[in-house]
Design a protein that fits this description.
Helix content is about 20%, strand content about 0%. It is mostly helical and about 90 residues long. About 0% of the residues are buried. About 10% of the residues have low confidence.
């Protein structure tokens, strides 16, 4: 009986591994394409490539900044929810 159960477990393991290795069916996903300027580099799917300076859109704040250059959210000028009650 032990040999039978061991063989059955081995068979199930091999079958499950074989099923897991089959490639998934390729489906075409239509990605939402963002329009970028003609001079700005884009990825293969048409979205802007964020590695380039022209494609980075940074939010400019006029308040104090931390050492790394990001806005310090402790100040009202940088935090739109500052002073509001949390619900």
């Amino acid at each position: 009986m032990k040999k039978f159960l061991t063989g059955l477990m081995a068979l199930m393991l091999i079958v499950s591994a074989a099923i897991a290795q089959t490639p998934a069916k390729a489906t075409k996903k239509e990605a939402t394409k963002k329009e970028a300027t003609a001079a700005a580099p884009t990825k293969k799917d048409g979205t802007p490539d964020k590695r380039f300076k022209e494609n980075k859109q940074t939010a400019k704040s006029e308040g104090p900044k931390k050492k790394d250059g990001t806005p310090d959210m402790r100040y009202k000028t940088n935090n739109k929810d500052a002073g509001k009650k949390k619900s």
